[in-house]
Every structure is written in structure tokens, then in C-alpha cells.
Amino acid sequence: MSAGAFVAAGLANGLSPHAMVRLFVESDVGDEDAFDPASLLRPAWGEFGRRAARAPAVVGELLGEMRRGLLHGGWDSAAWRGLDRAATLLPAGVIDAARAERKLARILGAPGRSDRFDGLAARLRIVATDIDTGEAVAFGAPGLHDVPISRAVLASSAVPGLFPPVRVGERWFVDGALNKTLHASVALQEGATLVIGLNPLVPYAAGPGGPPAAIARRGLTAVLAQTVRTAIRSRMQVGLEKYRVTHPEADVLLFEPRADDATTFFTRIFSVSSRRRLCEHAYRSTRDDLLARADALEPVLARHGLSLDRERLAAPVAPLVREPRRSAGDGRLVRATGRLGEALDDLERSLRVSRRA
Predict the structure, then answer these.
(1) Cross-strand pairs, 22
(2) What does the angle CA 38 – CA 228 – CA 104 come to, to the nearest 5 degrees?
């Protein structure tokens, strides 16, 4: 769901985490491969236009309510009915993500990848919510596999109020989290015995010695973010307990940032430099978390033929995110040189994996 849909689509297409960082984070603005949300997301002018086109009819209804209020009294009820009609002029979302969808379709449609569920070697399910019924739908499942992956990702990422519902066929979809926080049941019902869940939406808690009133002093957006995080995590905990009862043979592992992780909570992702810092921070924090939880994780992973490389987790690590390339020379040469370096990095990682195997 949401950002998880982007990550899942990339992994199912064989993109490594390093490759996804390059595609979605490292690319310099102006680069043909750039995926900068600040430049790809635009106001939903089409939605605004559709609502504006209804204004004359709504104004007529408002005048009718006022007339009935004058003739028959009942101003209070007439006023409320008028407000109800006026509310229909509000857009269903304020941001148009169509450009981001087209960009993702080009990325997934590159040679060796697929923007179609039936073109993947791995099984991929992307969950969105039918806004008219509240039903959770798993795109990629039988009967729902003919939807382009990029369209399914857009539907799964359509946060209500921020993005308009996304049309797929004759149905309209929004963020899959509207129905459930962690749709592990989709994987469990298809036979998965190990499910790894990632939840970055943890309520912030400064802890002893932390800044007092860190949320209240930051205004409405911080308060709303904390409220959403608290509700999501509480609901997710209930779901995890349910999975232990309904699928006792399976293991569901959950990874989250620490509650006092101010970097994760307060970073503004529409800044390129902030996204770079956040990815680097998350990468190192996850390595530290794996090492700290190794004693508890290893028996679970061993049941599925997996293990942790404690030595590698404890070793110094090179930065995940590159610094932006700066050059006054030919931009094409700079990009070509950068891509050559990236290809060599990927080859080196593949060789290391092969040697370990």
C-alpha cells in the first residue's frame, strides 16, 4: 500500500534496493531518470474543473433552499442543507499523480522489466480499497491481473483527500490502508509461510530527555500525522494478533523505526536532499535493528532456510546514497559515466552474492 506498492513493484521486477534508491532518490533534478515527487505531482486541475462545472447547478440548489427558508421558515435546516450541497463542490483530491504514473510505467516498461502482472516471474499483489464499497482488492490476483502495475500502484497510493480516487474499469480506488494497515492475509492465503512487514508509521515518542511538546508545538500537520500513526499502529497490532490465531504455521516479522526516531518522523520528503538523508538513515538504522534483534530473528529465519550475516551487519558500510553529481561538463557524459559506475557496483554486488552462495 502507498509507498510499499512502489517498493513491491520494484522488487518484483528484480530491482535491488540500491537500484530503487538510484531511481527514486538519487537522480539529479533534470536527469531523464529523475523521480522527484515535487516535480511529478501537480494540482488536480481536472478535478477542480469538474467540480467548477457543477457550480451553476449547486448555486441554483442553494437559492432554492434560501427561497424555501423565506417562505416556510426553518432557516436552520435550510442552512444545513445548503452547506451540504455546497460541500459537493469540494474536490475529491487536490494533487494529480498522473505524471508520476506515466513515469513509473516507463521505468517498469524498460527492457528486462514489466508493467504487467502476468509478465513477472514473481507473484505480485498490490492492495487498494474500493471507495464505494470499502472492499480491499488485490490487483494481480486471478481476474485482476490485466491492470497495469503502474495503475495499481497509483490506486494503492491514492491517500484520501490528497489524491482523487483512481478509476480502474468501472470502479474507483484509494489507498489500501483505508481498509487494513497490514494486508499480510493476502500473502498468507496464497501459501506464504514467512511474511515480512515494514511499517514506517510509528507514533513519535521523544522519551526521557527529549524535547517537550515536540508534537503540539509543530502545529496541525504534526498533530494529524501523530494521530494517523497512532491509529494505524493500533489497528495493525490487532491484525498481527489475529494472524497468529488464523495462521499459526506462518511467521510474520514486523520491522519499524524506533519510537524516538525524530529523523524519520519529522523529515520533509518533498526535498531531494531530505529524501537522501532519510534513506541513508533508514538503511543504517535497519542494519542496527537487525543486529540488535539477531538472537530473536535467527530461529525464525532458520525455519525458512534463511540466516543473518552478523559479521557483515557489524562491519563498516559504505554509504547507500551517493552525493549528487556536480559537473560543468557535458551532461550526457556525466550521466553515462554515472550509469557505468552504477553498473559496475551492481556487478560487484552480484559477484559477492554468488561467492557467498
Answers:
(1) none
(2) 35
Say if residues 214 and 163 touch (Cβ distance below 8 Å). no
DSSP H or E run through 230: helix 220-246
Q: Which helix (H) or strand (E) holds 43?
A: strand 42-43
> 62 burial class (0-12, 13-18, 19+ CB within 10 angstroms)?
middle
Q: Write out the three cell numbers for 200.
A: 514506517
Alpha carbons 351 and 70: distance in angstroms, whole number: 81
- C-alpha distances (whole Å) from 198 to each of 89, 151, 252, 324 are 37, 22, 11, 28
User: Which has the closest alpha carbon to 148: 112, 109, 116?
Assistant: 116
Nearest to 158 by CA among 128, 138, 184, 181: 128
- DSSP category for residue 179: T
Which run of H or E residues covers position 202? none
- pLDDT exceeds 60 at position 328: no
> Which DSSP string do the residues of 305-352 spell out, in sequence order?
T----HHHHHS----SSPPPP--SS-HHHHHHHHHHHHHHHHHHHHHH
List Cα–Cα distances, 211 to 89, 203, 214, in angstroms.
42, 15, 6
Closest to 9 in 3D by CA, of 123, 144, 138? 123
In 3D space, the residue among 99, 104, 229, 224 whose CA is nearest the CA of residue 163 turns out to be: 99
Element (H, E) at 8: helix 3-12
Per-residue pLDDT reduced to its tens digit, 72-122: 655 566 666 667 777 777 777 888 888 889 889 998 998 999 999 999 999
pLDDT recorded at residue 347: 59
Q: What is the pLDDT of residue 176?
A: 84
Confirm if 137 and 128 have CB atoms less than 8 A apart: yes
Contacts of 249 (CB under 8 A, 6+ apart): 193
The radius of gyration of the chain's CA atoms, rounded to the nearest angstrom, is 24
Over residues 228-252, the pLDDT tens digits come to: 889 888 888 888 889 989 999 999 9
Quote the CA–CA distance of 332 and 324 in Å, as a whole number: 15
